[in-house]
Design a protein that fits this description.
Blueprint: E1 8-14, H1 16-19, E2 20-21, E3 24-25, H2 27-40, E4 44-50, H3 53-60, H4 68-91, E5 97-102, H5 110-125, E6 129-134, H6 151-161, E7 166-171, E8 176-177, E9 189-190, E10 192-193, H7 216-228, E11 232-237, H8 241-250, E12 257-259
Parallel strand pairs: 1-4, 1-7, 4-6, 5-6, 7-11, 10-12
Antiparallel strand pairs: 2-3, 8-9, 11-12
Helix pairs in contact: 2-4, 2-8, 3-4, 6-7
This protein binds glutamic acid.
Glutamic acid binds at residues 15-16, 51-55, 75, 133-134, 136, 150-152, 212-214.
């Protein structure tokens, strides 16, 4: 489903590496993101999934982030900092923001999912921008049974369970390539991917950034989940927001990877 009709619900996920750079929250980039979202809202209903709590916490307090409890504490420090910035930046666009912290439990039964969905619907009906993160302070993803552990998969669940049709991941990579572009200069960008094979999910997870949890594997897992549920995912670089803008607003797809079960001739 690639029709960019009015009132289509989409989820945008922005990674830590985009929001925080050189141990500073990158305000200019958050402003650019807010501008894009304000524009997209003329055609789409937008839900934002934002990482960056731990990285933002680290800008305030230098705790050893390899220790899980420290990471939880950093998330507790960073999450309100990020939300404060989002509130200020979106206020300039007259957009009210809301913080929604989720855990895997919120999607583990119909009742829990409905509960989260009810609140989401009220926010969206009232034109509020929900900003979601995993509740890192208690949902320690590293303890696999408790959490998603990464926002790529969380945002795929958000897309499916909150009835969006597309997840746009803003990462620090341009697209999904047929080889690692850092190691192979001939690596080609894959524009449309309709299927993800098991072996692709076993590549080494190597996020480029010390605070990024994901790397390409978690993105592929998110894409696989979405393809299985007939949803789409678009992966592009969060440092080049034009790519997502052009894809969603102008139907132009020159960069970035679209994961879809539909076939296009793009
Ligand atoms: N929830 C984590 C944070 O906000 C990030 C997880 C991820 O980047 O996937 O710091």
């Amino acid at each position: 489903m690639n029709t960019k009709d009015k009132n289509k619900r989409i989820v945008i996920k922005v990674g830590s590496a985009i929001l925080v750079e050189n141990q500073r929250i990158n305000l200019a980039r958050i402003e650019a993101l807010a501008q894009l979202i304000a524009k997209l809202r003329s055609a789409y209903e937008v839900i934002l999934v934002s990482s960056g709590a731990v990285a933002a916490g680290y800008t305030e307090l230098k705790l050893d982030k390899t220790n899980l409890s420290n990471k939880q504490a950093l998330a507790a420090i960073g999450q309100p900092l990020l939300m404060q910035i989002y509130a200020n930046v979106f206020e300039k666009h007259k957009i009210t923001t809301a913080q929604v912290l989720l855990t895997a439990y919120d999607f583990d039964s119909r009742k829990h999912t409905q509960n989260a969905r009810n609140a989401m619907e009220v926010l969206l009906e009232n034109k509020v921008l929900p900003i979601i993160n995993e509740n890192d302070v208690i949902a320690t993803g590293e303890l696999k049974y408790l959490g998603f552990g990464d926002n790529d998969q969380l945002s795929a669940h958000v897309t499916h369970f909150f009835d969006a049709y597309l997840l746009a991941i803003l990462s620090d990579i341009d697209a999904y390539f047929d080889a690692n572009p850092k190691e192979n200069p001939n690596a080609k960008m894959r524009k449309v991917v309709t299927q993800i094979f098991e072996e692709e999910l076993h590549a080494e997870a190597t996020p480029n950034n010390a605070f990024a949890t994901g790397g390409i594997v978690t993105k592929l897992k998110a894409a696989k989940f979405l393809l299985e549920h007939q949803k789409e995912m678009f992966l592009s670089n969060g440092k080049d927001l034009e790519v997502l803008h052009d894809f969603l607003m102008c139907n132009i797809h020159e960069k970035g990877t679209l994961f879809t079960t539909y076939s296009y001739n793009s």
